[in-house]
Structure prediction request, 172 residues.
Amino acid sequence: MNNSLKFLLLGVLIICVGCNKKVTVQNNSEATQALMVTDTVTENNGLTTISSPYDVTDTTNRLEKVIRDKGLTLFTRIDHSANAQQAGEELKPTQLLIFGNPKVGTPLMQCSATTAIDLPQKILVWQNDNNQTQITYNMPAYLQQRHSINGCDEVLEKVSGVLKNITEQAIK
Prediction:
């Protein structure tokens, strides 16, 4: 493939990614690498969202169990839809878990005090317009970018792994 075609393909990829369109490139490692470098934190508003095969309540129960089994502190569980109902409003099933571990959160706050606004960690479980249960949480890379966290890469990687592991175990 000549260089002009590669640059044209790369330009199309960048434009499509900027429009939040999914693009699949096969057999073009340069374009694929360029696509991976794109700032996914900004594209997704710093959120990771995965689907759950269970309803919101079951998913939240499963997440709560995994969080407790890992020895993390579950600070609270907020049922936004129940609160909305008490206020005479309607809201699709929506629950929030707030949890953490001071041994992990404290070093992040030591790297950047403003990180405290986003801690403890939160996992949102909600039902989308297609009645599919979704699990959403802040990407640690987003926190790093948002709070200009420097020197805490190891802690951020650990948090990222724990969040991924918690959500994967809950939807097994």
Summary: The first strand starts at residue 47 and ends at 52. Residues 3-40 have pLDDT under 50 and may be disordered. The radius of gyration is 19 Å.
